[in-house]
Structure formats: structure tokens, C-alpha cells
Amino acid sequence: LSPKLSSALLFDAVYAVVTAVQELNRSQEIGVKPLSCGSAQIWQHGTSLMNYLRMVELEGLTGHIEFNSKGQRSNYALKILQHTRSGFRQIGHWHVSEGLSMDNRIFSSNISDSLFNTTLIVTTILENPYLMLKWNHQELEGNDRYEGFCVDMLKELAEILRFNYKIHLVGDGVYGVPEANGTWTGMVGELIARKADLAVAGLTITAEREKVIDFSKPFMTLGISILYRVHMGRKPGYFSFLDPFSPGVWLFMLLAYLAVSCVLFLVARLTPYEWYSPHPCSQGRCNLLVNQYSLGNSLWFPVGGFMQQGSTIAPQALSTRCVSGVWWAFTLIIISSYTANLAAFLTVQRMDVPIESVDDLADQTAIEYGTIHGGSSMTFFQNSRYQTYQRMWNYMYSKQPSVFVKSTEEGIARVLNSNYAFLLESTMNEYYRQRNCNLTQVGGLLDTKGYGIGMPVGSVFRDEFDLAILQLQENNRLEILKRKWWEGGKCPKEEDHRAKGLGMENIGGIFVVLICGLIVAIFMAMLEFLWSLRHSEQSEVSVCQEMVTELRNIILCKDSFHPHRRRGGMIRTRPALPDERRARSTTTLSNGKLCSGGEPDPLAQRLAQEAALVARGCTHIRVCPECRRFQGLRARPATGSPARSEESLEWEKTTNSSEPE
């Protein structure tokens, strides 16, 4: 309760008690008997006094005073008053039995006729997008020279309140700050001097200004924010797929690959379980053992594991399996981490902002920061009791050269051309960020406040403007005007994070890697082909002729087989027996026909090999499941006996080097 209302209730309470005591004294003599506060004894006239209190009926400062049988106030009414510049006026009443009753004339219209056909002087300041000069303002006169949010809002208010207005630019071009002698500058000073009736601009409602002028209800809510120049990071390039890992990580991965290859090669040589016979069918007769982990295979095996593709080389020993398992676990984590970060590095153009909040700004001195001199933002820091803001004010006040600017445009230019952070209202921050993609907002809002229409103290039309502003807010007209003047910039909205397709500028590098890999593969194939011809027995065939033949077969898509080239220096086959030559030159096919002359086809070669084995005395023929060569079965004389037994039979490998298809 307010002090005045509490005093009125206290007066009525004392008045009611005095009235009841007077009535009690008329009916009987009230004796005075001392009582102890610590005893349970009651006053002998207490019950009678309570009965007289319930019968009291009088008019007090708070209205009609009457009590029910329970001692509660009853049958009372409340007046509903409206505070105006001329005083209070009653706009309704409430009764305990009748309820609420309001004056219908108050709600019959949102405005009064006090401003009808009245011309008001409006002081303002040029500030985008609130008030701007039209491009052809020199050809126009009066209010038609201006455009902006405040101009459109004035038109809406004038249509509702039916008044006329004349826009007047403030002489000194500032909003208004107090001077040492107690006077005010800018628009506030003109309102105090009664040179203007309204101040319509981005004028912040502050307690200091509220002492000397009146404000309407806020037509826009905002706060102080930080505007800073953003350095855009490099756009995703052709080799952006390398960005998820730093160059150091890629280097360590290469070293890890080489280390694993060397350890695998060493372990496979040391363990006896990685050595095996090249031809299991010749075990017992051949002491030669081979190891699948040659230097080339040791380098290839980790590559297959890293690419999640595996290889045909399978570790047999426990030691080599241990190396393989550790490498696979390593690659699993690396590939998962790479995949998780790849999309962000391919699509996001990262911004380089050294500060992220007002605390970061206050804790450093490399970046200068300031605000408009004489504005509400400067007053906010000057009067703040928050430690961080006090430290920022001390920096701004003592910094030389001065970090304060005279206008928003000057502050924006300083942000773009130097290492400077500008402290300004969030609405202006949003407006300029929409029109310059090199600007960004750092952190959130430092406070919450509003813009209001300034008027001289005691203005008789303040209530009318309050109602009109509320009507514009309810009709969403102010929000529509804000979208009209704030949107339309060339920069996209920061909250627009819709997925976009990747272009060649994002993943073109992987195509470059693919093409380079294919070129290297073709080059290596040509080297292998030339190396094979150089060590081939068919020395009478020129390299060019062999190359042309192979290319012709590739173009014509012929069958993928050709005569085996045996390298020089390898063990040659023995001379063919006469029967073998005859079997190779003339072969009886399954249909009874003969195939002779020229180079036999694979089927003819296979039949020739079978005939050669039969000619050598073999009784059975098979293909070795391990080495895929023909083998013949023939009897071998047992020791000490010319007879042949089952135990004396063994499979022997034919000396023919051809393998079955």
C-alpha cells in the first residue's frame, strides 16, 4: 500500500474505535481498572466494545465504514481513478455487491479530441533508419523531404490522433546530455525550452532524462550490444577434405603408418608361424619356406586396414594379429573423428572473431571500444555499478585519442577501418549488420531499455500518445514498420542454417587425388609391362609390337589370356618328349577330330598336357588344389621288391609349367 492509503486506513480505524467508545460511554460508565499484560484477565468492557464496533456506520476517508457480525468490513465501494496531468479523475467504481462499473465514455474511443487539428513541432535527428533524407530531398519541401521508421510512425499516430506535425532537425545534432551548469543539449534541451512539442527518434528512456522531460510508453525495446568487424576465414577450397585434421596430425598418421609397416615386417620375420611351404603338395620333399609379409605386403596391409577395405593377406601368428588389431583400433578412431568433422569443414566458412563476450572485451586492450558521446549508452556505463562496466568506463574515459564518436555512421566507419568495437543499441546493430556482411554482433545484450517519444514535462497529450502507441502495438503496425526498414539488406540472416549442396569448390580436391592416382597407376602398369618384356624369353618380339598387340586386345575386349612369358633366369622346362610334341601339335578332341598346327587354344593345351602325362607312364591325372598344376600318378618300385603296392604310389608334379584354366 502507498503511504497515503495506509494513513487513510489508519485514520478510519482510529475514527471507528473512537466512535464505538463514545457510544459505549453513553450507555454505561466505563471504569478504569489496571490490567497486567502478562495475565489472562480481560477488560470487563471488552465484549461490549466489540458489539458497538460491529454497529458502527460512518463515512471515512476510504469511503463508507460498516462491519458485519464477524467484524469484517462490509458494504463498501472502491473508486477507480485515473491519474492525469491535471489531477485524478474517476473512471469507474467497484461495490462489494454490485461489482465493477466503468465509465463507458472512457472506452468509446481510444483518443480524445484534444489534439484535433493541432500542429505539433517535432524535433528529431538524422539517424538511419529512423529518419533519413530522400534521394531527391532538394526538390521537396517540408515533411516530404524525410523518410524512415519515425516518419512512418508519425503518420500512423497523426492518423489516429488527427493532428498535424512539422519535422524540425535538432541544431546540435545530439540526443541530449546534461551540462555542468544544469542545462541540457540536443533534443532534450529543446523540449525543456519548449521549442518543440515532441521528440521522435531513437531516444532512449533513462531515469536521468525522465526527471526533466516526459516519455510516452516505449514503442521499441532494445539493449546495448557490441558491434565488431569480422574477418571471414578462407572459404572451403579444393583440398578442404584435409582440414578436419591439422598438418601435424596428418604427419603423425604417416609416421604411424610407416612404424606399423616396419613392426609388422619385423614381427612376421621373427615368428615361425608366418613361414609356410609355397606348395603344400610338395611338403617333405622341399625345404624352401616363404613368408607372405614381404616388404611390399607389409606396406600394403596397413593401407587396406586404414581404408576399411582389408586385404587378401591374413595374419596367422598371434604377434602379427596383435599388430593388426592395434592398427585397426587406431584407424577406427581416426576415421570416426574425421567423418564427424568433415561436413562442417566442407560447408562452413568460419569467422575469425577474437572476442566472444563483453567480459572478453573488457579484459583486453588490443581492441579499442567506445560509444556515442552524449548518448544513453555512454550514460549507462558512466552510472553503472557493475564492476566490469565500471572498468570499461574508466578505459573509455581515459583513453587518448578519444574512443567516443559523434554519430553512428562515424562509429561504423571506425569499426570497418580500424581495430575498434562499437557499443550501440541492438536495433542499430541489427540494421547495419543487414547491410554490411563484414559486421557482426559479439555476445548478447548488456541491458534492456526502450525508445519513447519525448514530451515536455506536464504535456496534456501524453495519455493520448500512450493509447495510440498501444493501439499500434496491438495492431502489429510497429512490427510491420520495423520489418520494412530493417530487412532488405544484402546479408543473409544469421539464423538461416538450411543445408546446401556441396559444390566442386568444396570437394574438387578429392577428384584431383583420384585423377592423379589413376595416372600413377597407368604409369606403373606401363613400367611393369616393359619390365616383363625385357625379361621375357620371346626376345624376338619388339616392345612396340607387343604394346600394339596388347592395346588391340584391350580395345577389342578379347579374352583375358595369353601365352605365359617365362622370365629369364628362371628354371626352364626340360625338352619335350616326342610323344609330347606330337600331342601338342596334334590333339584328339572329344569329338574325335584332330586339332593341329598353329597356337592351340587353352582346351587343346590342356589335352596336350594330359597326353604328355600318359606318355610318361602316368595312370591318373589331377590338378593340385594348392598350386593349380597338373600332377600324374604312377607306380614307384618298392625297395627290395619289384612288385608295386598302394604305398609305393605317389603323386608327382609334371614339369610342364602351364596351369589349367
TrEMBL record:
Q: What domain of life? A: Eukaryota
Ranges where the record places region Disordered? 635-661
Q: How does it sit in the membrane?
A: Multi-pass membrane protein
What's the source species for this entry?
A: Upupa epops
Q: In its UniProt entry, what is this protein called? A: Glutamate receptor
> Any transmembrane segments, and where?
249-268, 326-348, 507-531
Pfam families attached here? ANF_receptor, Lig_chan, Lig_chan-Glu_bd
What the entry lists under SMART domains is as follows: Lig_chan-Glu_bd, PBPe
Which N-terminal residues, if any, form the signal peptide?
Answer: 1-20
